[in-house]
Amino acid sequence: MTFLTSNSIKLGVTDLSFHHMTAALVTQILQDMGFEVQREYAPHQDNFINLKQGKIDLLSSAWLPSSHGIYKADVEEVISVTELGLHYEPYALWGVSDYVPVSAVNEVSDLLNPEVMARMHKHIQGINSGAGITRFSIQMMQEYGLSDAGYTFSPGTEDACFGAFEQAVSNKQWVVVPLWKPQFLHHKYTIRELVEPKGLLGIVDRAVLLIRDDKKALFSSQQLARLDTLRFSNEIIAQLDYKVSREGAAIDSVANTWLKTNGFLN
Length: 266
Hints:
By secondary structure, the chain is α/β, with parallel strands linked by helices.
């Protein structure tokens, strides 16, 4: 059993690499305030259940209102929460590599054209089932008639999703990747977003730090204000995520260096 001291904080982190990266930035700030931070990693929906049950004090990062709004609403049936900061502005997308001609594949419905179906890999590999992009993609498979046309979609791990895309790129194979920004693949590859006129991929969200209102007393008003000033971007998170996920850099060192370089830490 872990016993927390009065200055200990449990920070819930959605168990995906870019969420790890963002949480590392938040952790460095919390540690600079004098808190001991224990990071708890869990899938999307489990993270919000932990927040609802008080197993964690804060959550990094919630995508609101589109991707994680249903989970936040469930938490607020028990305890009110406050949004802090704007870590980045995420959104879901379906994309293809830039070597797939826009004249052939510009929007999702183009995937049904016979000449495209003759070249496009029919399996679309997603991430875990609780992710917004997974929920959206399952709906798109039905709404656009892709399942009936012979395409398949399956949830899976980050490694399965990203590995499938990178393997396809290495072979110059046409493939659809269900993705989002920020994500480290965008730092290396030019991934062209497909036009999705039905609006099934949600909207541009706000990625924020959530704190249970009954835990706000652990912080001074100045500390809460400092957390609320944290502003990153899709590009920053993707770049830092790439350093960790593909270049092997230590995540807390990457976070600390970036925060010091950009004036968030002395």
